[in-house]
Each structure stands twice: as C-alpha cells, then as structure tokens.
Amino acid sequence: MKRLLHVWGLVLAVGLLAGLARLGAQTHSERGATGVAVLLNGRVAGVAVTDGGAGYLVAPPVGFSGGGGSGAGAYAQLTNGSVIQIVVTNGGTGYASAPAVTIGLPPRSLGMAITMAPLLRVEGEPGTVTLIQWASTVGNTNQWNTITSVVLGAEAFVWSDTDGTQAGRRFYRAVDQSTIPVVTTGMALVPAGDFTMGDSLDGGSSALPLHTVTVSAFYMDKCEVTKAVWDGVYDWAIANGYSFEYGARGKGANHPAQNMTWYDAVKWCNARSQREGKTPAYYTDVGMTVVYKSGQVAPHVRWDQGYRLPTEAEWEKAARGGANGQRFPWGDTITHGQANFYSDAGIACDTSATRGYHPGYNDGVFPFTSPVGAFSANAHGLYDLTGNVWEWCWDWYEGYGGAPETDPRGPASGWGRVIRGGSWGSNALNGRSANRNGDYPSYGNDGLGFRSVLPPNQP
After folding, report:
1. Do the Cβ atoms of 151 and 84 come closer than 8 Å?
2. CB neighbour list of residue 2: distance below 8 Å, 6 or more residues apart
3. Contact at 8 Å (CB) between 197 and 212?
4. What pLDDT is stored for residue 342 in this prediction?
5. For residue 340, what are the contacts with CB-CB under 8 A and spacing of at least 6?
6. Would the pLDDT of 311 be above 80?
7. What's the domain count of the chain?
8. Long-range contacts of 295-298, Cβ-Cβ distance < 8 Å, separation of 24 or more
9. Same domain membership, residue 310 and residue 213
10. Helix axes 227-238, 262-275, angle to 10 degrees
11. What tens digit of pLDDT does each residue of 202-216 get?
C-alpha cells in the first residue's frame, strides 16, 4: 500500500468540499441504467430515469434510436455509482414517437481478479456538482485535468481511477463546480475606428493584401453563444413560427453551442431580437417586410436593427482588441494557458508546454470544447476569439481588395460564408486574428459556433 501511494501521489484537494482519499480494491454488483424519453413538438424534451443502475465509475454515454427523428443528444449524471439524471443537450428534430434511450453499461468485475487502483471518497453537501480532477504536479503552475463530474448524495461518493494504474504520479482533487468562475453574460462595446486588416505572417496569402478598414462602433457578445442561451431562444422560436434544419448541439450548458448551419444561426439571431422586443435584422424580401424564419435563403439585412452575425471586418477588429500587427489578441505566441486549440510542435509561434488537444478538456468524448470564458479576455472584454469553436460571420468568402474601406460587408455572392478564430481541434495558425476560412452555409460541425452583434443604439 505504501508503494502504491508513492507511485500515484494520491491526495484529495480542496475547494468547499471535505473528503478523504485512500487506495484499495472495490467490488460492485453492476447493473445498467434505463430511461424513457419524453417528447415535445417532435423533440426530446427530457429523459425519465427508470432505473439508475449500479456500479458506475464514470458517467456512461447516452444515445437515442428510433422514433423517426434524429439529432438528440444527452449526458448522464451520477451519484454513488448510479445514474440520477439524464441532461438533454440537444432535442433533435422530427421525432414521431419517443426514441429508445440507450445508457452505457457499468464496468464488469472479472471473477476474483483484483486490480489495484486509486480510490477516492468524496463527501459534501447533497446536490453539489463536483468535478474530479488530476494533475501530475501540485504547485502554482500545475494543470488540473477534469476526469468526470458527479452529483453528491447524502452518502459519500466512492470513485476509482481505472486509468490511474499507469506509470507516474497522479494527484487528485474534488472541486465544487460552483466555485469555478463563470463569465458574466452580456455584450461589450467595440469602439469605432481604423485598423489594418489582414497580416503577412506565416506565409499565408488568404489574409493579403493588408488594407485599412474603418469600422463603426458596435456591441458584440462577450462569449460565444452557449448551449443554454441557444436553447432558451430556440424553444421560443419554435413556438413562434420559426423552423430550423438541424438546431445545435453543446457539450454542456456553459459550453459553446455548435453544429448549427449558417442559416440556422441567422434565423436564431432574428428570434433573439423578436424575443427581446427588438426589430429583426434579416428579411426574405428586398422591401424588408417578411422576417426570415424558415428555409435557406440569402437574406436582406437591416444593418441598424437587431441581433445579427458580425461582418468579417467587425470580427477581426473585435478580436484584435485595438492592437495591430500581431498574430493573436495578446501577442505573437500561443500556449494552452491562453486558448483551447490543438498544439503542434512544428509551428514556431506555438510555444505550449503541452501538445495535441488541450489536456484540460480532452476527456475522451468529442468535442473537446471548453466552457466559455475559461481563458482571459482581450482588451475589449471579449473571450475565446482564438480557439474553442470557429465562428460564423456574415460575409461570403472571397479574396480581399487592397483599397481602404468603411464598414465592408463582403461580396454579393460566393460558395461559402466566412468562419473565423479556429477551434479546439485546429492548430495555432488557424487561430490567428487575421486568419480566414470559409464553409458551406448549409453545413455545421462540432467545431463551429458563433456570437452575435448589435448596433450601438441597442445594447
């Protein structure tokens, strides 16, 4: 036992929770959990847990099948080895009947064989959402990696790290999730002014030629639109005449919404405007009398009204935070301490000590997004303009002209719409403030989201 304690350096930290840690072997009578889906207007509105099962060490995957629809997603929450709740992250579309709910099985004991592994016992206020994390060192610069989350019950939660038998040391802590700072929602003012758009760094040509752009003042969401914010507007929109092709997904309520098409993002902006009593920005007719609520069209825009996607120039001005001539909002190099991206040792400006996917968010379950605002804001008070998810912009994707421009809005047509900022799965060069990319407006993926803007008279 002393030898194992030395190998894994087992400790239980801190936060508002009290707990104990010890090493040992654990046996369970394993039983799979079951649940029943509840439908509302063709979408999965919830899942009733009919049997929480027993013997779960980590939250199992949750899936849906049948019912005639698609796209529903959810995750499980545990207490004392049992599933107590299924949280629906995406209701999907088109369900004619309730789909079957599939919940992963707990690990099975292998006869009388015993595997030695770190065992963690956590006690705290019932109902507390707790993150279990590990680090290879303990100090001011250590990186804590989240393994799983649990909801505490009246009795202590006992958890075993089956991956902790690997060589090396692991330190553990259990953290009350409510003690982790959450970014205040809202918008930040991006002041009017000139800036140099594009860059000549790293040999890329899509951001050339450099040219001077004048942008009027506007407000921008401080954070990428989260799944919780998306859902609130989406549910209102569905009840008020809107229709969406695919909707959006999200790894958690405070993670960015992703997977929506450009068209769905635009319609969502209109719904957000109408829900708040604002005049919508997007219309299907040139006279701007028919609000864009359904289908896939290239809408007409009232630039002085309502929520909308940023233009490409607005996005880059916001991302730079008033600084010209540097790769990122904070300077010319990047690490995992500054953004959620895929680190590549072959890229000179990438000086991260950790490589590959961000170790703090690579939990083995795609996508590896991070909660919005997990990194420092830029000078305008905006978060995650590098990495996490790409962000849809208004403009069609085409090459730049070289002449000075005022409030440019891109070409009249094209093959795809501009996306900016890089993602959790893209490298450092994609996260440059000037980097440009495009995607088909009818396409979405788990590395693509957005944030919205407002004209200066409507904060």
Report:
1. yes
2. none
3. yes
4. 97
5. 358, 360, 361, 368, 369, 370, 374, 375, 384, 387, 388, 424
6. yes
7. 3
8. 295/243, 295/263, 296/245, 296/261, 296/263, 296/441, 296/442, 297/263, 298/413
9. yes
10. 70
11. 767 788 899 999 999
The mean pLDDT value for 254-266 works out to: 97
Asked if 279 and 203 sit in the same domain, the reply is: yes
Round to whole Å and give the CA distance between 182 and 374: 8
AA identity, residue 442:
S
Contacts 24+ apart (CB under 8 A), 211-215: 211/400, 211/401, 211/402, 211/403, 211/404, 211/405, 212/404, 212/405, 213/313, 213/317, 213/404, 213/405, 213/406, 213/408, 214/404, 214/405, 214/406, 214/407, 215/190, 215/313, 215/314, 215/317, 215/406, 215/407
Share of the chain above pLDDT 90, in %: 56
Single-letter code of the amino acid located at 5: L
Provide mean pLDDT across the span 263-288: 96
Mean pLDDT confidence for 306-331: 95
Range of the domain at 21: 2-27+110-179
pLDDT at 307: 97
pTM above threshold 0.85: no
Q: Is residue 411 scored above 80 in pLDDT?
A: yes
Where is the domain boundary, 69, 103, 137?
A: 103
Residues 399 and 435 in one domain: yes
CATH number assigned to the domain comprising residue 229: 3.90.1580.10
Burial of 403 (0-12, 13-18, 19+ CB in 10 A): exposed
My answer on whether 6 and 98 are in the same domain is no
Residues 288, 363, single domain; the answer is yes
Give the mean model confidence (pLDDT) for residues 319-337: 93
* Per-residue tokens: 47: 């899942």
Residue 203 shares a structural domain with residue 156: no
Average pLDDT for residues 7-17, to the nearest whole number?
31
Question: From residue 365, how far is each of 158, 326, 327, 361, 369 by CA, in Å?
Answer: 23, 34, 30, 9, 10
Query: Which of 179, 202, 218 lies at the terminal end of a domain, its last residue?
Result: 179
Regarding whether 389 and 422 lie in a shared domain, the answer is: yes
238: left (phi over 0), alpha (psi -120 to 50) or beta: alpha
- Candidate from 86-100, 173-187, 229-243 with smallest mean pLDDT: 173-187
The average pLDDT across 148-176 equals 68
User: Do 52 and 159 share a domain, yes or no?
Assistant: no
